[in-house]
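Project channel, design review

CF: Before we commit to the Roseibacillus ishigakijimensis constructs, I'd like one complete example in the thread so the newer folks can see what an input/output pair looks like. Taking non-specific protein-tyrosine kinase.
RD: sounds good, go ahead.
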Amino acid sequence: MSNRSRARQFENRKELLDDSREAYEDEFTGGEGILNLRDLVERLLVRWPWILLCTLIGLSIGFFLIWRASPQFESTTTVLVRDNNAGLLGDRDSADFDLQKEEALETIRASFTTLELCQAVMTAPEIQKERNLIPAGPKELPLIGNPDAEPPSISDFTEEELAEMLQDWLTVEVRRNTRLIDITINHEDPDVARHLANEFVTQYLAMRSDKKASRSQDNLTYLMGESNRVKSDLQQAQNVLASYNTPLEYEEALREAETEVATLALRYGPLHPKMKEAQGNLENSRLKLRAALLKAINNPIDAEYWQPYLVGDKSELADTESLNEFRDLFVARRTVLESEIASQNSLYSTLLAQMETLELGVDTSEAEVSVHSVAREGVQVAPRKSLMLAGGLMFGGAMGLALAFLLQLLDNKFHKPDDLESQFGVPVIAAITKLEDKMVADKATAGHSLQDGLDKRLLFLNDDTKENYLEMFRVLRASILLLGSGDQRKITSVLSAGPSEGKSFVAANLASAFAQQGQKTLLVDFDLRKPSLHKLFRQDRKEHPGLVDYLAEVNSLEESIQEAPIHPNLDLLLTGSKAPSPGELLSQDKLKKFLAEIGSRYDRIVIDTAPILPVPDTRLLAPLVDNRLFVVRADQATRGGVSSALKTLEQTGSTPHGFVLNGYEERRGFGKKGYYGYYAYGYGSSYGEVYGEGE
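CF: and here is what came back for non-specific protein-tyrosine kinase:
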C-alpha cells in the first residue's frame, strides 16, 4: 500500500475517531474545556495526598477538641401551666391567657429567661454554697497554659455577671402540643445542674407569687379609691337633688294653677269671681316659686352650675319671662341629676363587687404554674465524641478538597494530551510515557567506548527494552509517515519551548525507528550551544568534525557525518567543535544549502534543535524543514512557556504539525500510573548545565 493510500485511510479513521470523541465529550463531560466536571473530579482525586493529609489534620483537631473539652451534664425540671381566672379589671394588668395559643405559652417561657430571675437564682443561699458552681473551663494547653492556676471563684464575679453566666447554661423549651415547659441547665457538675434547675423553678414561683400579690394589693387600693370617689360624687348629687325638692314642688303647683286659669278662661270672663280667685292663686304660686328658685340657685352646693345663667336682670327673676326660663332649667337639671345618681349607684355597686372578688382571688393566684417533675442528677450530653470526630473528618475533607481545587486553579502545567489539544488546537501525535527508574539512572558521560554498553535510553538499540516502549515511537513514526510522502516531508525537526523537555531523547529514538524500518536516516544535533546527542551515543564530539565544522566550511559534509555504531541505516551529524559564536554560523542561505544537500542523500532526516525561547537558532531553521514536532514535557512545561514558543514560531511563519507529550503518565483517580512505566528525561534545570536529569 502506498503512502498516499495509507494517509487517506488514516485521515478517514481520524475523522471518525474525532466525531466519536466529540459526541462522548458533549454527552458525558459537558463539552469542551479542561475544567468540565468529569475532568475536574479526576484532577482533584489525583491530588489525594493533600486531601488525605487535610482529612487527617481535621481528625486530629477532632481528637484534640475531645481531649480539651470539659464534660457537660444536663438536668431538667418540668412545670405545668394551667388556665388563669379571668382578669378583674378587663385588660388592666390582666394575666388571662388562652393556653390553646402558642403565644401564651411562649410568653410564659420567655419569663423564665429574664436577667432578674437568673440573678435571684445565682444569689440564693443554697446555690452560693455550691463548690463547683463556676466551671473550671477547658484543659490548659501543654507548654502554653498554666496548670497551677487556681480555679475561678464565685467572689470573682458580680451578680449581673453570674446572672449572664446562668443564662448561657439555661435552655427553656415548650413541649409540642402540651402545656409543659422544660427548664434545662447545662453544667460541668451533674449535682450543680440539678440544684440550679430546681432552684430556678422555686425562685420563679416565689417571684410570680410576690408579683401577683403585690398586683392584687395595688388593684384593691385602686378599687377602694375609686369607690370612695364614686360614693362622694353620688352623695353630692343626691344632696343637690334634695335641695331642689321645694322649688320643684312649687313649680308643679304653678303648673296646676296655670292649667286651672286656662280652663276657666274658656267658660268665664276675667271679672267672674272664679276667674279672679284662680288668678289670685296663680300669682301666689308665682311668688312662692320665685322665692324658692332664688334660694336654690344661690345655694353653694350647686352655685357653680347656675353661675353662667345669672347675668343681668335674670338674677332676680323679676319678670315672668325670666321665671319661665329658670323653670325649664330646673326641670332639665333634675333630669340630669337623676340620671347621674343612677349611673353612680351602678358604678358603686360594680366596684364593691370587684373588691369582694379580688379579695377572694389573692389566695388562688399561685396555682397558674406548678411543678410537674423535679430535676434529677444531670446526664452527660457532651462531648459527643463520634459527632466531633465526624465533624473533624468532614472539615478536614472539605479543606482538602478546597486545597486541591486551589492547587488545580494555580496549576499551569500540562498533564495529558487533552490539555494541549484543548488550549492550542494542535493534535498530539504521540504520548511518550516515563521510563523506569533503572533506565533513567544510566547517566553515562561522553568518551565511553562501545564496550561500556549503550545508553539504555536508546530504546531500539537496547535488548532489555520492553516492547511497549518501542511501540510508542513506532506510533510516532507512523504519524509522521501519514503527514505526507517521504520525498516531500523527509526532514523532521524536534522542537521544544525550553530545556529539560526531552527533545534529544525523542529525536534519537525517532531516528532509530526510521532506521530500523530500512530507511537511510540522518540524526543531526542542531543544538550548537548545548549539544547532548553525543552523550546518548557515547561519542566524543571533539574527536570528529561535525555540523559546526561544516557550517564554518572547515570540513565537508562527508567528513562531518559519521556512522552510528549501532545500526547501518543510521548516521550521525554531531556538533563537532565548539562554536565560538553560533549565531554567526547560521544564515538562511547556509541552512538551505545544508538541508538540500542532506535531503538528497537520506530518506529521513531528524534534527534535534535548540530550545526556542532561550536562543534564536531554531527560529531560523523552523521555516525550512518539512515536519515540526513540538515536544512538551508533562508535569513540567508551563502553559505560558509553550504559548510563548508557539507565538515565536508563528512570527517565523511556521507552526508545529503536532505535539509529542513526553514523560506522560496516566492519572487514575487515587494515584499516578503510566501506561507503560516511569520516565523523566530532559535538559536539566537550566539551559547551560553540562548534564542534568535529562539530556
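RD: helpful, thanks. The CA atoms of residues 231 and 663 lie 111 Å apart.
CF: The mean pLDDT is 79.
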